[in-house]
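re: the backbone from monday

yeah here it is again, tokenized this time
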């Protein structure tokens, strides 16, 4: 996905850059920021996870890393 589309997708889902980085198993949230600015292409396993997420096919265990505890 291009940077603007990725940012729009992340925001629609309600994830911060840090949360999104955790979901796609990227250590540095700054990498996601660079993707969104178009400074760096999304490659490797992260690109596959993002595609799966956009298609609604990402296993729930990936999203569990950002699950909010019940109040």
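seq for it, each position gets an aa:
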């Amino acid at each position: 996905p291009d940077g603007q589309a990725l940012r729009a997708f992340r925001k629609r889902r309600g994830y911060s850059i840090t949360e999104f980085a955790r979901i796609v198993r990227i250590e540095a949230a700054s990498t996601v920021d660079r993707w969104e600015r178009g400074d760096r292409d999304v490659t490797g396993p992260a690109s596959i996870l993002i595609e799966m997420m956009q298609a609604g096919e990402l296993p729930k265990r990936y999203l569990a890393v950002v699950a909010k505890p019940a109040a």
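The mean pLDDT is 91. The two ends are 35 Å apart (CA to CA).
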